[in-house]
């Protein structure tokens, strides 16, 4: 029902454009700031920092003891604020990294890397290299890769697609080179019997090989991967729900982050920072008057392909789906070395979450500017967006150089960044959840690329 009404509203507003009928109500900055203060004043950034310190003591790879310890910690924290928690368990694959990775090419030494891919398979291959561009099916046309090693550039398609395409064309191994500086720490998403051994090398290494092939040289490589293993394991989402304290609007807001990290990385910023901010917002909201339910969720197995958030979405009841206003995802929200805050949506379109984030940013960011938005997937907002719920990822861009590395540590965390994001997300959520405004008569800053007046959106 709600969504039908919404589409009609959208259609009508697009048709009439910005006529008076659809004009946004005037901003009331002072009262908004007073409401913001109720949340902002209560947020203690030291709490966020301390959670990060605790969570980033060791990696939290999904399905490992590290994740289990994090899940216990998060659950205990939620419960200490008075929440009942739900643990959502789900099966995942756990991957043991290879004990040996070797790559040798005539006349070339590899000083950094090569790296394997998560879910990559073992094997030993010696054969010629064939360059196949981005590794799309079309790129193989007219190329004979049978038994040979496909040399593929990173980009546009997932690593899994590139490896699958090469395997389907008969290649016996794959080498993928980066399309930017640094090494690739990639995943093939899930195990697949069709995969062939695959390694990642740097851009410079890949371009050097391509140059030799372009000159018509036959380049032979030997590639060896040993000791890789895939097992079944269990990951968890942790869910805490704050029930509306006053006359319920029957609305639900979701606030999320992923608690897992990649192998070998303490994941202080990715994403202990988001998880810690979810915890602190949960603490602050525990005693706040709201007419809206707020569900705080930390997802497991995000790094394995958003598995926790897909699981969460799968388990959502139709009723909860219908009453969900929006999903706020925080991922990598505290690095000293990253750029300013941005909100990404999975379809590149603004939505109620980015509208609320933009106006909260205008009131609370250091620059006083509305938080900008852009187009990016790569985190737990994606499954929500795919089922048609407004969702956005709060992140700093460009991301820090320590992303997915052992250097993603507590020392790189900025209290100022944490404070800004927690204020903005906390205030944006409170705009929806506070009891004394009609549902979603909310954000006061016209977002960029406006093609409708979101204030006219009815959610009840
Ligand atoms: N925190 C990152 C997402 C991210 C990184 C977004 C940089 C934008 C810029 C997230 O934890 C992650 O690493 N995601 C994976 C994708 C996922 C589907 C496995 C990634 O981007 O490789
Ligand atoms: Zn992340």
Key structural traits:
about 450 residues, alpha/beta, Aminopeptidase, Glucose Oxidase, domain 1, 8-stranded mixed sheet, 12 helices, elongated, disordered N terminus, disordered C terminus, binds ligand BES, binds zinc ion
Structure description:
The termini are close together. This protein has 2 domains: 304 residues, Zn peptidases (Aminopeptidase), CATH 3.40.630; 130 residues, Glucose Oxidase, domain 1 (3-Layer(bba) Sandwich). The protein has 12 helices and 14 strands. The chain has an 8-stranded mixed sheet, with helices on both faces. A 6-stranded mixed sheet has the order 2-7-3-4-5-6, with helices on both faces. Helix 3 packs across helix 12 and helix 7 packs across helix 12. The N terminus and C terminus are likely disordered. The protein is an alpha/beta fold and 460 residues long. It binds ligand BES and zinc ion. The site of ligand BES has 13 residues, from helix 7.
């Amino acid at each position: 029902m709600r969504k039908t009404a919404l589409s009609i509203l959208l259609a009508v507003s697009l048709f009439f454009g910005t006529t008076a009928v659809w004009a946004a109500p005037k901003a009331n900055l002072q009262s908004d700031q007073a409401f913001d203060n109720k949340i902002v004043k209560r947020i203690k950034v030291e709490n966020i920092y301390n959670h990060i310190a605790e969570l980033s003591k060791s990696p939290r790879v999904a399905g490992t003891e590290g994740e289990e310890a994090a899940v216990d910690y998060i659950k205990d924290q939620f419960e200490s604020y008075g929440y009942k928690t739900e643990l959502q368990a789900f099966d995942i694959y756990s991957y043991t990294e290879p004990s040996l990775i070797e790559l040798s090419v005539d006349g070339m030494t590899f000083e950094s890397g090569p790296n394997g891919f998560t879910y990559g398979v073992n094997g030993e291959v010696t054969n010629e290299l064939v360059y196949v561009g981005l590794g799309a099916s079309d790129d193989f046309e007219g190329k004979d890769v049978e038994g040979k090693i496909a040399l593929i550039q990173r980009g546009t398609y997932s690593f899994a697609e590139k490896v699958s395409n090469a395997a389907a064309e008969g290649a016996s191994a794959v080498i993928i080179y980066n399309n930017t500086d640094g090494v690739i720490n990639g995943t093939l998403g899930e195990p697949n019997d069709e995969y062939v051994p695959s390694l990642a090398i740097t851009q410079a290494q890949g371009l050097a090989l391509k140059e030799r092939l372009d000159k018509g040289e036959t380049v032979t490589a030997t590639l060896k991967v040993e000791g890789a293993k895939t097992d079944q394991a269990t990951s968890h989402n942790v869910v805490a729900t704050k029930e509306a304290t006053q006359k319920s609007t029957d609305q639900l807001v979701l606030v999320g982050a992923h608690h897992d990290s990649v192998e070998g990385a303490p994941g202080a910023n990715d994403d202990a920072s988001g998880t810690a901010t979810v915890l602190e917002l949960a603490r602050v909201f525990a005693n706040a008057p709201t007419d809206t339910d707020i569900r705080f969720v930390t997802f497991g197995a995000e790094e394995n392909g958003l598995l926790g958030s897909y699981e969460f979405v799968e388990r959502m009841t139709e009723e909860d789906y219908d009453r969900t206003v929006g999903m706020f995802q925080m991922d990598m929200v505290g690095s000293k070395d990253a750029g300013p805050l941005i909100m990404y949506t999975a379809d590149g379109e603004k939505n109620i979450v980015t509208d609320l984030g933009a106006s909260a940013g205008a009131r609370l960011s250091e620059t006083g500017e509305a938080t900008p938005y852009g187009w990016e997937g790569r985190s737990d907002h994606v499954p929500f967006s795919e089922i048609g719920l407004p969702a956005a990822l709060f992140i700093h861009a460009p991301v820090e150089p320590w992303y997915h590395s052992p250097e993603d540590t507590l020392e790189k965390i900025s209290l100022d960044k944490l404070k800004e994001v927690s204020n903005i997300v906390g205030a944006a959520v409170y705009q929806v959840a506070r009891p004394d405004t009609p549902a979603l008569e909310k954000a006061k800053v016209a977002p960029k690329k406006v093609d409708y007046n979101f204030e006219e959106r009815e959610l009840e």
